């Protein structure tokens, strides 16, 4: 079949190789003959002569992202535990979705609370808001009232702030973990490429923390296992999943 591509599409008859190419062709047939003559003068394969000394070196070093760090055998979650967490998480998301639907259709009364939240792009403000380091901030723990006040762009942006912040930590504090979990619960699908990248970064960061787990408590290791599990098995980033 490939040989058929080399067959001529038009029959143009004999071609005079001494034809004067400087003159304007007087017919379509003569024009095609000139095209054939010019094509015969072209090499079948052309290789560019590249002067690599004139090529600029890249100014940005791109570091490839690896997958999750494998958990030490004694702290890795079982498959049964992972599947249970995914099922439980799915049930919570369904419950929240039903509540939102009832509020939207006025089947359930809900008055938005007055909460002084930081601006969406205020990374430091949201980190302080979600960390719960003192009694005043503890009242902003994630609950139905607080999370229902967040639209989807806010959810995605806050999650990005928190994931970027935990990269510099040795563990995820309880209050911060609550917020990350709550944001995952109300995160809408399908995921945008930016959100997908953020979730993968969350899983990788948790896996690094877990690998350095000599000072972590059982509950803190469970939090790391949970976030890796949800990103990998619920949000379908299966290449990051624990066995």
UniProtKB/TrEMBL annotation:
PANTHER family attached to this UniProt entry: GEM-ASSOCIATED PROTEIN 2, GEMIN2
Species: Xylocopa violacea
Subcellular localization: Cytoplasm
Subunit structure: Part of the core SMN complex.
Record's protein name: Gem-associated protein 2
Presence of keyword Cytoplasm: yes
Keyword hit for Cytoplasm: yes
Chief subcellular location: cytoplasm
């Amino acid at each position: 079949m490939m040989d058929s591509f080399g067959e001529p599409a038009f029959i143009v008859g004999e071609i005079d190789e001494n034809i004067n190419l400087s003159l304007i062709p007087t017919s379509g047939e003569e024009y095609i003959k000139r095209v054939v003559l010019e094509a015969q003068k072209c090499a079948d394969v052309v290789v560019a002569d590249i002067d690599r000394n004139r090529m600029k070196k890249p100014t940005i070093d791109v570091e490839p992202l690896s997958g999750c760090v494998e958990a030490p055998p004694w702290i890795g979650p079982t498959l049964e535990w992972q599947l249970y967490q995914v099922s439980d998480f799915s049930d919570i998301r369904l419950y929240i979705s039903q509540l939102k639907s009832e509020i939207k259709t006025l089947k359930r009364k809900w008055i938005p609370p007055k909460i002084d939240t930081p601006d969406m792009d205020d990374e430091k403000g949201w980190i302080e808001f979600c960390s719960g380091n003192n009694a005043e901030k503890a009242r902003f723990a994630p609950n139905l009232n607080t999370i229902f006040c967040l639209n989807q762009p806010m959810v995605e942006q806050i999650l990005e702030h928190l994931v970027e912040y935990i990269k510099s930590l040795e563990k995820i504090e309880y209050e911060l973990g609550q917020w990350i979990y709550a944001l995952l619960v109300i995160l809408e699908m399908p995921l945008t490429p930016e959100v997908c990248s953020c979730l993968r970064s969350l899983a990788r960061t948790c896996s690094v923390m877990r690998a350095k787990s000599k000072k972590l408590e059982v509950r803190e290791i469970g939090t790391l296992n949970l976030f890796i599990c949800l990103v990998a098995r619920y949000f379908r980033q299966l290449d990051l999943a624990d066995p």
